[in-house]
Specification:
heterodimer, A: mainly alpha, B: alpha/beta, 6-stranded mixed sheet, 4-stranded antiparallel sheet, 10 strands, 38% helix
Chain lengths: 253, 260
């Protein structure tokens, strides 16, 4: 028991030290712009299709289930308001972040972990290149930029699939669907969503980098690092998302 | 004064992992421009010794001097220590045991990596240097290949080209001959001798190949159970008639070195 708490304490101290090193690398040069762009390209390619596939059905489900219910109250035209609110405020940021955690987090952690167990991280250090600067920071910046971009995509996909199942399939009027789409959402929702995405992207990049660099024990260790990253970030994202939503509802935004 | 001519000086270096004593009071002085071959059975702390030399590991006690400068206290986590450590490491080239090439870069980019990071050269000059170094290691025109397309021996030679790209003063080689066929390891030996003659580099070679030691070494050390059993100029060590040395060079099971 004491042994475990010592290890936990040691990990926390290591994480704080890691955070300081990351901050130092963010504010000072040299910066590896090309490496950052390369990781961004990689992440977008890895995330695009899974994120699209995961989010598209959400709009469809809201429309399919909602249309009948709203019709009972004669409020069909308000269906699009619910759809837009749910997608802008909740689904899009949360799902985009969770998918980035699953896809980007695991691939970053696995890449760094592989470099670690194969001695490439040491090779970087021996070549006087700070591994945190060269492999962790580009991944972190890529996550912070890519997550909101993907969230834009998920928003569009969610709305389109919602429209498709509401208008042609369930027979909701196209005009009233569009007219009420933005009735309940404001620009604030958009910015809050983007802010959440960037915050969650930061968490994914940091945790993937931290656990990747702590990898030990060969291929099994790499798998464990990737797995731990996904589990930890998704739990963190869902819990944080809950508190942010509660706070915003309290504030009446 | 002796330390000024020495490339590497170790004074009573100790290192343990938990209760496992890996290095115990290792002291040696290697003059600049010499080739040292550190022999020893597997798992006797040879690699740990190399890692201590470049500051990847800290000795528990003892001091390490590189070209007369004490590097023992340099802490990578502090900015002053990090600057000094990074400056120090530019004196080194290191060939890792399995190459440690970057998987997602071509061979050419791997060799060019240290040049792009630290040398103020144009892309054209870098390309010329990379082509030159790859030719040196017998891999002319392999620039656009990926490391995964190469055999183990070829990867090791690419890693060697990367280690010498910046023309470091000291080259550390962790088991350059392990996993290579005899002809290939002889080629690598020739390469070390050639670079030593033409560029005057100091080499620290970790090995358990006595033939390699006979061929290239100026200085020979024998590490067993974390202790330096013998160290000195090759001829002196070979003539010293120490039991551990004799056992190792005669490939005998009889002697102080026990199979664990």
């Amino acid at each position: 028991m004491t042994n475990r708490s010592v290890r936990w304490f040691e990990a926390c101290a290591a994480f704080v030290e890691f955070l300081c090193a990351v901050c130092r690398c963010l504010v000072t040069g040299p910066r590896y712009l090309f490496e950052t762009l390369r990781v961004m390209d990689l992440l977008i390619r890895r995330c695009l299709i899974p994120v699209g596939l995961a989010v598209a059905p959400v709009g469809a489900v809201i429309s399919l289930q909602g249309a009948g219910l709203f019709r009972m109250f004669g409020a069909e035209s308000l269906l699009s308001s619910l759809l837009a609110t749910a997608i802008f405020r909740e689904y899009s940021p949360a799902l985009a972040s969770v998918m980035v955690a699953a896809q980007a987090g695991s691939s970053i952690a696995a890449r760094i972990g592989t470099m670690k167990v194969r001695g490439q991280i040491d090779a970087l250090a021996v070549m006087s290149v700070d591994p945190i600067r060269y492999v962790v920071v580009p991944g972190l910046i890529a996550c912070i930029i890519v997550t909101p971009l993907l969230s834009v995509l998920t928003t569009l996909l969610g709305l389109v699939s919602g429209w498709f199942f509401a208008v042609p399939v369930m027979g909701v009027d196209h005009g009233s669907f569009l007219a009420n789409l933005y009735a309940q959402v404001s620009l604030v929702d958009l910015w809050v969503g983007m802010g959440k995405c960037m915050a969650f992207g930061t968490a994914v990049g940091l945790i993937a980098g931290f656990l990747g660099l702590r990898t030990s024990g060969g291929a099994t260790g790499v798998g464990k690092a990737a797995n731990d990253t996904v589990t930890l970030t998704i739990v963190l994202i869902l819990v944080a998302d809950y508190f942010v939503s509660m706070l915003l509802l309290r504030l009446g935004v | 004064m002796a330390e000024q001519q020495a490339a590497i000086t170790l004074v009573k270096v100790c290192k343990s992992f938990g209760t496992n004593r890996v290095l115990h009071e290792v002291s040696l002085t290697l003059p600049a421009g010499k080739i040292m071959v550190m022999l020893g059975p597997s798992g006797t702390g040879k690699s740990v010794l190399l890692r201590c030399l470049v500051g990847l590991m800290k000795p528990d006690s003892g001091r390490i001097f590189i070209e007369g400068k004490d590097i023992t206290g340099l802490d990578e986590r502090r900015s002053a220590g990090r600057e000094q450590l990074f400056a120090l490491r530019r004196k080194f080239g290191m060939l890792f045991q399995d190459g440690a090439l970057f998987d997602d870069m071509t061979v050419g980019d791997n060799v060019a990596f240290p040049l792009r990071q630290h040398a103020k050269l144009s892309e054209r000059e870098i390309a010329a240097r990379v082509a030159d170094d790859l030719e040196r290691v017998g891999l002319k025109g392999a620039q656009s290949k990926m490391p995964s397309e190469l055999s183990g021996g070829m990867r090791k030679r690419v890693a060697f080209a990367r280690a010498i790209a910046l023309r470091p003063k000291i080259v550390l080689c962790d088991e350059p001959s392990s996993g290579l066929d005899p002809v290939m390891s002889a080629t690598l030996d020739e390469l070390i001798l050639d670079l030593h003659r033409s560029l005057g580099m100091t080499f620290v070679v970790i090995s358990h190949d006595t033939a390699e030691a006979r061929k290239i070494a100026d200085y020979v050390g024998l590490l067993y159970k974390g202790e330096l059993q013998a160290f000195g100029p090759k001829d002196e060590v070979l003539r010293s008639n120490q039991r551990a040395i004799n056992q190792f060079f005669e490939r005998s099971t009889e002697g102080p070195i026990q199979v664990l």
